[in-house]
Amino acid sequence: MISLQYAAALATLLLATANAATPTSSYLPQSSPAFLPKFSAPTGVITAWPPANTAAALPSGPLSTAAFTLSGYPAMNEVVKNAATDPNIVPVIAAIDWTKVPNIPPTNDTIGASYPSSDPNCWWTKGGCVTPKISYIPQDIYYCPTPGTWGLTYDDGPMYYYPVTAENSKWAEPNLYDYLLNHNNQKADLFYIGSKVMGAPAAAQRGLNDGHVICSHTWSHPSMTTLTNAEVVAEFYYSLRMMKEVLGITPKCWRPPYGDVDDRVRAIAWQMGMRTIIWDLDTNDWNINGDQVAPGPGAITYTEANNTVNGWITNRENGNDTKQGHVVLEHELSNATITLTEFWLPTIQKLYNTMPATACNNIAQPYWEESFVYPIQGKVAVNTNGTSSTTPVTTISGSNSTSSSSSGTGSSGPSVVKSGAAAGQIQAVTSVMGLVFAAAVALVL
Description:
Blueprint: H1 4-20, E1 30-31, H2 90-95, H3 109-114, H4 124-127, E2 149-157, H5 166-171, H6 175-182, E3 189-192, H7 194-199, H8 201-209, E4 213-216, H9 229-247, E5 253-254, H10 263-271, E6 275-276, E7 281-282, H11 302-317, E8 326-331, H12 335-351, E9 353-356, H13 357-360, E10 418-419, H14 421-444
Parallel strand pairs: 2-3, 2-8, 2-9, 3-4, 5-6, 7-8
Antiparallel strand pairs: 1-10
Helix pairs in contact: 1-14, 9-10, 11-12
């Protein structure tokens, strides 16, 4: 017989051992970002998907002109200055486990010229690497597993022009969002730049309210591997903070500008709650010459970009595109990019099961707020790290289907939840606690 005090001490020791044990998943645990400020819920924005009133028509037409007061942010469209001493960034840096961030120096032209062909850093820009060389973060999402699926994504939004003129407004949001709404209520992943959300918050709210999935595209759209660790953290932090304040969501997904990512940047993003999404098809719409926004610097003509998409369509029609589905890079960036997507979308919807890239990868909950539950392609939802989820969902089936999901569970406000390795660890700890309790009782009796 042993004392209750000894049994309790034994239970504490075994519980500590369980907490330190290898989780059932090999990925580094993630948790809801605790470093973001507590904002009041924004007005005029949904707090769940499906929204509370599923019978209400989605918004369309001119955007709200309500005034927004956004303060405490760095200069728009610029890499954050003095990030290492920024009082908002310092505690985030302190919260990151830097032993799990590879010691990779920022890249530059000189490093690019001498970079080893073995690609030790999984640097996408150099060789298209999407499978990290470190084992504790998952592979990038870059294609749809099911053949015949088109993962619809748009970068660089929300699109707006200043000064506001009749011509500019013709292409600015909500033009694309209204077009998607009027074409089978099509949903997409929207990769928002934090600075642009600051410039067009009403457009960002329209994107969320329409049922699109919102992901981060950094604060100022830099080549991320060229930045210091502190600057990388700042780019993620201010993008997440802006979306939390304006939209009330905390994305688990991000896309690197220009695709420029390596294992250092991936590891920081992962610890800040986000998984990397790339693509396997690039429309090159961003590179069209003579564009309304940036006339001159583009390297291709509109015809060339059009021919690229036409080639994919022809390949599909000829029965040669059957191995996998695709995540396609498109942009809400300019008159040329909007024209290209609006021209091809009806044809794509006929030939492909068109949906967000998150949906074709069965990610039903792309935010840390659990009240948003979106339709997916498969029957089983997964977490952003690929592990199974128990989330009840509605599946997307059939060509160009965009059915609404069933009601999700959880509160409409932010919640701190664990995913992946942490979830497995919690299950393991629970089991051990039960065994410890039983053993302690047996010993006492």
